Each structure stands twice: as C-alpha cells, then as structure tokens.
Amino acid sequence: MSKINDVTANFDQFIAEGVAVVDFWATWCGPCKMLAPILDDVADSVTDAKFGKVDVDNAPELAKRFGIMAIPNVCIFKDGQLVDRIVGLCDEDELSETIKKHL
Length: 103
Hints:
Layout: H1 11-15, E1 19-25, H2 30-45, E2 49-55, H3 60-65, E3 73-78, E4 81-87, H4 92-100
Parallel strand pairs: 1-2
Antiparallel strand pairs: 1-3, 3-4
C-alpha cells in the first residue's frame, strides 16, 4: 500500500498552494496498484511538490468535478488550478518530468 495519504477530507486546502499531485484511484484497479510504488518513488525524489490520493469510489463528487473518466488519473495542481494530468499507468521518468514542468 502506498505511503501517500488520502486527501479527500481536506482536498481544497491540500491543492490551494504550491504544486500538488493527486492520484485519483480505486482499490479494485490493477493499474492503480501498479502505479502506487512508482508514485511513492517520485514523491521521495520530487520534494518540491506534495502528493496525495483520492479513492474515486469514496469521493465521486471530486472525480466528477475534475472529469475523471479513467483511472489511474494523476492530476497536477498549481495554486489550486488543474495544470496537467496523466491518465493511465506511467513510468517514473514520465511522471517526474510532467511534475517538474510545473515547479
């Protein structure tokens, strides 16, 4: 299981300042489980961003708000605004590079 915490309860506060990376996922999703250790590694190496998770089954209103139609769906927010996303399984390099564009 990922060491990145669920941010559903304080979502708006979490994304409000700086660069926030949010993994929209579900417990039944195989690619989501495969992405978890990749996300953990990137969180360890990209220390200028904060990382959180949202289970779409527990927060359908957040999934709808950000147009989550497929998971995993990693959304990158800067100062509260959605600035980028990666849909589907990605590797560590792609994820790191996408996040670093917004730091």
